[in-house]
C-alpha cells in the first residue's frame, strides 16, 4: 500500500510501496504540486520502474516552470535504484539519516 | 521445497505477487534482505507480461525456491508470444532530464539486480519461462564485470 500527503513545511511525504498498482494515486497527487518540492522518502520502502516514471514525469513538469522535485530521506536500497536509473543525475538526492 | 502460485494478468495483481514472496520467503527460510530486489525484478517481468501479452488470459505462475545463500525465481507464462526479457536493448541512463521519457527502465533494472537470468520459450506449447537467481553474496566469475556496478 502507499500513502502520500503533505507533511510539515510543505514537504510531500510518501510512505509504503510505489509499485505499478499504486502509481495512478501517486501521479494524481504529484500532478497538483508546484514549484520547488521536497519529497520525503524516509518511509518509502520500495519503488519500481513504474514509480520512477511518476517521479520523472513530475520532475519534467516542474522543471519546465523553474521548479524541481528534491528527494530526501533516501534509503541505501532506493539510492541504488536511483543510481542504476541515472536519477542521481537529474534529481537532487539526500540520503536518509543513519 | 518450492513455493508456487498462479496470478491473473492484471496490474493490480502485483500486490498479490508481493504477498506471495513474503509468504514464500518465510516458508522457505530465504533471507528477507533479498526481497526488495526480488520483488522489483518480479514486478518488472510480470508487468511486461501483462502489457505485452494482452491476447492471452492464461494465468502466470511464479515459483520461488531457496538456493545456497539466495533464491531462484521462475515465472511461467502459458499461451505466450515469444518475448525474451534478457534481449532488451540497452537503456541510456545518462540522457539529460529534457531528453528523458518515462519507460524503458524496467528491464534495465532487472539486468542490474539479478545475478543470473535465463529465458526459454517452447514453440510447441507456447510457454515462456524466465528464471533468475539472486544471492546476498555473489562471487564474480573471472574476467566478469560485476553487474551491480
Strand content of chain B: 25-35%
Order of helices and strands of chain A: EEHEHEHE
Class derived from helix and strand content of chain B: alpha+beta
Q: What is the terminal separation of chain B in angstroms?
A: 32 Å
Quick overview of this protein structure:
The complex is a heterodimer of chains A (98) and B (149). Chain A has three helices and five strands. Chain A is an alpha/beta fold and 98 residues long.
Provide a descriptive summary of the structure in words.
- The complex is a heterodimer of chains A (98) and B (149).
- With 98 residues, chain A is of the alpha/beta class.
- Chain A has helices at residues 23-30, 49-63, 76-84, and strands at 2-6, 12-18, 36-47, 68-74, 92-95.
- A 5-stranded mixed sheet of chain A has the order 1-2-3-4-5, covered by helices on one side.
- In chain A, strand 1 and strand 2 (12-18) form a beta hairpin.
- The longest helix of chain A is centred in the middle third of the chain and has 15 residues, at 49-63.
- Chain A is globular.
- The mean pLDDT of chain A is 95.
- Chain B is of the alpha+beta class and 149 residues long.
- The mean pLDDT of chain B is 91.
- Chain B has helices spanning 14-28, 35-52, 106-113; strands spanning 2-7, 60-67, 70-77, 116-122, 127-135.
- A 5-stranded antiparallel sheet of chain B has the order 1-2-3-5-4, covered by helices on one side.
- In chain B, helix 1 (14-28) packs antiparallel against helix 2 (35-52) and helix 2 (35-52) runs antiparallel to helix 3 (106-113).
- Chain B is built from 3 helices and 5 strands.
- The interface between A and B is medium-sized, with 25 and 29 residues.
Task: Give keywords.
heterodimer, A: 98 residues, alpha/beta, 3 helices, B: 149 residues, 28% helix
Which helices and strands occur, and which strands form pairs?
The complex is a heterodimer of chains A (98) and B (149).
Chain A: E1 2-6, E2 12-18, H1 23-30, E3 36-47, H2 49-63, E4 68-74, H3 76-84, E5 92-95
Parallel strand pairs in A: 2-3, 3-4, 4-5
Antiparallel strand pairs in A: 1-2
Helix pairs in contact in A: 1-2
Chain B: E1 2-7, H1 14-28, H2 35-52, E2 60-67, E3 70-77, H3 106-113, E4 116-122, E5 127-135
Antiparallel strand pairs in B: 1-2, 2-3, 3-5, 4-5
Helix pairs in contact in B: 1-2, 2-3
